[in-house]
């Protein structure tokens, strides 16, 4: 399966601009800590296995694993293995440095070892029944493939926000992306089912859509508006715009849980749902802006936040353009200016959706 992105922006940029993602992770970390208290640990495996799929540069991955290692150490003196996985094209250098500061495990535990595994999260990457607890934060929102070749009216399959309402995505195209997102979830869960021990836990958390708010609103509106400026000024043509789009889908909680919820769900025999929730988290740069009204740092932090996870697909979409290396930073400069000039057009709400699953026995 050919991936449609190469990873997040590297060289520490994602680490520096992913505090909102960590806030979304922090909301569900207590679910995992509680799960650690009841994980079956009498399996005889050489180590207790913890795996994070979609670790990026690792700052948030290490932060998420740290309390889990501590929780398991309170239960067992066995060796613990943390595994951090992402695409082979991901920038693993910051994670490599973070895992062994001063030559010692970052988890401050001599019996905890760490490993990095490169590969697509939609494939089985680890030995069968080798993992006790697995998690993924946000990464499942990035699709494994593009189900259409082009989107003529907007840069995201979910379409523009109701507030901005600039652009459109056809009902037919939206259905194709929803189907692809459903297939991706099933493929991911099937791979994890092979790797997890019976009774093991799997947490799937991702940016999503609630009843009235969506995480995509604001972010992709301003990026789309910046691209439309580029078209109006003749820097790119509409064909280039239509060929490029972000291969990301913002699911509802019902879409996230559909493959395992209910006796007739395709993967109901593999997993049971322990807990599922839609929630909104406070975004640091939004809260600061509300307190200070200082728009310039808000526009900068807002733009850097979404640049960290949109630039890879944007560069790929503009790769054939002879001035790609100049166009990409110019697009984000325009986006930052648009936010600073009209922050009311691009409000941002971080909606998270998550489910905690238990791997069933004998399936």
How would you characterize the overall build of this protein?
With 363 residues, this protein is of the alpha/beta class. The protein has one domain (13-359): Rossmann fold, CATH 3.40.50. It contains 11 helices and 7 strands. The chain has a 7-stranded mixed β-sheet. It is globular and about 65 Å long.
Kindly list the characteristics that best describe this protein.
globular, 363 residues, 40% helix, seven-stranded mixed beta sheet, 17% strand
Record the SSE blueprint:
Layout: H1 13-16, H2 19-36, E1 48-53, H3 59-73, E2 80-86, H4 93-99, E3 112-118, E4 131-137, H5 171-195, E5 196-207, H6 219-232, H7 238-243, H8 253-257, E6 271-281, H9 284-292, H10 295-317, H11 324-341, E7 350-359
Parallel strand pairs: 1-2, 1-4, 2-3, 4-5
Antiparallel strand pairs: 5-7, 6-7
Helix pairs in contact: 2-3, 6-11, 9-10, 10-11
Concise structural overview:
The protein is an alpha/beta fold and 363 residues long.
Shape, please?
globular
Annotated CATH homologous superfamily: Vaccinia Virus protein VP39
Estimated share of beta-strand residues: 15-25%
Could you name the ranges where pLDDT drops below 50 across 5 or more consecutive residues? none
* Helical content class: 25-40%
**What sequence of helices (H) and strands (E) makes up the elements?**
HHEHEHEEHEHHHEHHHE
């Amino acid at each position: 399966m050919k991936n449609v992105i190469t990873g997040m922006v590297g060289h520490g940029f994602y680490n520096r601009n992913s505090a909102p993602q960590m806030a979304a992770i922090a909301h569900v970390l207590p679910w995992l800590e509680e799960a650690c208290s009841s994980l079956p640990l009498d399996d005889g495996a050489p180590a207790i296995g913890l795996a994070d799929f979609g670790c990026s540069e690792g700052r948030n991955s290490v932060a998420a694993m740290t309390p889990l290692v501590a929780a398991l150490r309170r239960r067992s003196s066995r060796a613990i293995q943390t595994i951090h996985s992402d695409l082979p094209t991901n920038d693993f250098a910051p994670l490599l440095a973070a895992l062994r500061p001063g030559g010692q495990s970052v988890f401050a535990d001599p019996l905890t070892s760490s490993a990095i595994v490169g590969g697509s999260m939609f494939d089985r990457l680890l030995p069968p029944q080798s993992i006790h607890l697995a998690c993924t934060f946000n990464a499942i929102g990035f699709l494994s493939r593009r189900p259409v070749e082009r989107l003529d009216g907007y840069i995201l399959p979910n379409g523009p926000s109701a507030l901005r309402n600039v652009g459109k995505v056809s009902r037919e195209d939206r259905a194709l992306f929803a189907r692809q997102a459903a297939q991706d979830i099933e493929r991911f869960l099937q791979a994890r089912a092979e790797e997890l021990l019976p009774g093991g836990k799997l947490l799937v958390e991702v940016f999503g859509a609630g009843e009235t708010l969506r995480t995509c609103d604001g972010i992709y509106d301003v990026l789309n508006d910046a691209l439309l400026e580029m078209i109006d000024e003749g820097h790119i043509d509409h064909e280039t715009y239509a060929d490029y789009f972000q291969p990301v889908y913002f699911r509802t909680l019902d879409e996230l849980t559909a493959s395992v919820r209910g006796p007739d769900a395709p993967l109901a025999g593999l997993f049971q749902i322990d807990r599922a929730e839609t929630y909104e988290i406070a975004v640091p740069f939004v809260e600061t802006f509300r307190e200070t009204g200082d728009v310039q740092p808000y526009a900068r932090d807002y733009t850097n936040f979404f640049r960290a996870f949109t630039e890879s697909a944007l560069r790929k979409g503009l790769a054939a353009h002879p001035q790609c290396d100049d166009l990409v930073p110019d697009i984000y400069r325009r986006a930052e200016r648009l936010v600073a000039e009209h922050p009311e057009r691009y409000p941002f709400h971080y909606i998270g959706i998550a489910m905690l699953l238990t791997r069933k026995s004998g399936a």
